[in-house]
Amino acid sequence: MTASLTVADAEIPPQKDLVEERLVLWYFAAALTFMLVSMLAGLLMGLQLLRHNPLPTIELFSPGRWRMVHTNAIAYGFLANGFLGVMHWIIPRLTLRPVLSKPLSYLIFAAWQIVVLATAVGLILGEAQGLEWGETPVWIDPVAQLGLLLVAINFGAPIIQVKGPMYVTLWYYLAALVWTFLTYAMGNFVPEYFVCGSSAGAVGGLFIHDLVGLFVTPLGWGMMYFFVPILLKRPMWSHGLSLVGFWGLAFFYPLQGIHHFLYTPIPMFLQYGAVLSTIALELVVLTVIINFIGTLRGTGMEAIRNLPLRYFYTGITFYFLTCLQCALQTTMTFQALIHFTDWVVGHAHMVMFGVFSLWQLGAMTYLVPRILKTDWYRPEWCEFHYWASAGGLAVMAGDLILGGLFQGWSWAALQPWEASVSVSIPFWLVRIVAGLVMLTAQVVFMLNFYLTWRKSLHANLRPSVS
Amino acid sequence: MFEKKSGILLIAGVGFFAFAFLSNAVVPMLMYRHLPEKPVKDVVNGNTRYQFEDLAQRFPQAFEKAYGQPPEDAQQAGDWYDDKCAEALEIGRKVYIGEGCWHCHSQFVRPVSNEDRRWGPVSKSWEYQNRLQRPVMFGTRRVGPDLSREGGRRSNDWHAVHFFKPDSLSPASPMPQYPWLFDGSPDQPNEKGLALLTYIQWLGSWLDSYPYYEDYSPTTIKPVAAAE
């Protein structure tokens, strides 16, 4: 700090006391590593569907097991690590307080990597738990649960010390810390140990949905409410809409889990309830989207020129599309046709990659040069990364969604089962190509990240030598 | 309230979550409380026992290696087969989960999209009130067909060869091979293989329409005692 200290400056602790920047980078590196693992796993399953699995008879490379690695690595490896990294940046800067404990932060980092690695190893050894998105072997669940508790304590401490009303991001973060802990506990323990059958299906549905709606979504939107105003250098358009958005999401999101199991023996009125709350949520989502479009008023070109902003607004667009799709596809009419098909797989990719992964990658694109205090090694590689990721995803999601319709019609027409497979082949082929483009983009991004890091080490060494 | 820690923590964080859990999870639990969860040994029925003993005859060496010899006494042998069958169902389900079968095969027949014509009766709640449906194996994607009425439709031989190399029976099948469920060849299923075969043959064995073929008149379900 220089001599020209103002009163406001004096009250703000210096960045190095607030943010453990090295840890943010570590989280990003871990996240990208698991992204790579997840994509390779997806590639293996994709090749199997095309009957070109290069490793068909090796137990440890069984595509069924790696399909679970694919989803778990993206949820717990990529997204969770990315979010934790971003939270280490955002929460201290918003609360002006560091997280509870620096050693605890490092302990959580190590523990979480062990949890994710152990999950992957457990799945590859065939020890999965029979819950979608919760395949983490049962013996890891308590460790993960403890880890989530520590995360909530470590990040909860600075948030809880804030006096008076909090900024939007902290609403989402505070709620997410509670929700993630509760969701994980509900989904991994209740249907495993306490209830069976349709009730377990209802809880399983809640878990599938809450994992997206109460863990990934609030952490994602929290991030958007922080970065978008900063990048645009202006406040959110409407605080009222921010309130409507948060409270609407908080109320309606947890109510819709059962829409994953429509036409099952779960009581019909509960199924209708889940459908209605899904449609209601779409109206809430619309208010959030309007708020973010409103924030952009007059400077729309910024969202195209500025790369991190472009990531964020692309994700917001995909979010709108997925939610719109959600409101349509959960109606009973649509479900009859598209449930069980690749439509849903396309939808899931649009949410997990098109929205949340793009937001993460945008945040990384923004934060890495700031933390390393040097520009990207190759900024044009970042451009390629954007276009290949977003473009590849758009093709993949569109392709799978369309393919799902063909599968659904084939089944309803009582064609032989093989017909629904042969009609899928062209779609699965396009999916592989789109996936390879996305994979290439991530490899380029990782390389860029590594070279930028190396460049920054040299740059930071030089002054001390001279 | 709407921007304060207490409101967000208690109302949104805990309150809304609890409300959703009560309305969406506790309600069905209470509605099905008259259908208590059956233990595994109670879901071993005559149809499954028949398939299990069929495994013992088709793959005698493999069966003996996995389960040993049944007792000489007929009554004891009956109990022994029941116990081993229950054991096989449990292990078979573990394999089914561990291999991720449930990510490409569902286990419920919907009342729409002509599914009851393809697979048999629409699924009912009571079918799922047992230990082998905790967690429930509804599934969310069908690359391959629904399996909840698969039992008895095809022979153990067929399934063994199919698990070993699916496209040898179903040429365009994208299903992966599972040679590690066998000791080298399809006629040598190991313990996991036998267990998975038992589990597959169990699916739907509790229905009057077992085994389900299109345009086939149903046989009635046989209780265990009558099957011996």
Describe this structure in words.
The complex is a heterodimer of chains A (466) and B (228). Residues 1-5 of chain A have low confidence and may be disordered. Chain A has 17 helices and no strands. Chain A is mainly alpha-helical and 466 residues long. Chain A is globular. Helix content of chain A is 78%, strand content 0%. Chain A has helices at residues 7-11, 15-18, 21-49, 63-95, 102-124, 141-160, 168-194, 197-232, 239-252, 268-295, 302-305, 307-329, 332-338, 342-372, 379-412, 417-422, 425-465. The two termini of chain A are 23 Å apart. In chain A, α5 (102-124) packs antiparallel against α6 (141-160). Chain B has 228 residues and is mainly α. Chain B contains 8 helices and no strands. Chain B has helices at residues 5-31, 46-58, 60-67, 74-98, 115-119, 156-164, 191-202, 224-227. Chains A and B meet through α4, α7, α8, α9 and α10 of A and α1, α4 and α5 of B.
Layout of helices and strands, plus pairs?
The complex is a heterodimer of chains A (466) and B (228).
Chain A: H1 7-11, H2 15-18, H3 21-49, H4 63-95, H5 102-124, H6 141-160, H7 168-194, H8 197-232, H9 239-252, H10 268-295, H11 302-305, H12 307-329, H13 332-338, H14 342-372, H15 379-412, H16 417-422, H17 425-465
Helix pairs in contact in A: 3-4, 3-17, 4-5, 4-8, 4-14, 5-6, 6-7, 7-8, 7-9, 8-14, 9-10, 10-12, 12-14, 14-15, 15-17
Chain B: H1 5-31, H2 46-58, H3 60-67, H4 74-98, H5 115-119, H6 156-164, H7 191-202, H8 224-227
Helix pairs in contact in B: 2-3, 2-7, 4-7
Order of helices and strands of chain A: HHHHHHHHHHHHHHHHH
Question: What is the radius of gyration of chain B computed over CA atoms, rounded to a whole number of angstroms?
Answer: 21 Å
Number of helices of chain A: 17
Largest interface, C-beta within 8 A = A-B, 90 and 74 residues
Summarize the structure.
The complex is a heterodimer of chains A (466) and B (228). Chain A is mostly helical. Chain A has helices spanning 7-11, 15-18, 21-49, 63-95, 102-124, 141-160, 168-194, 197-232, 239-252, 268-295, 302-305, 307-329, 332-338, 342-372, 379-412, 417-422, 425-465.
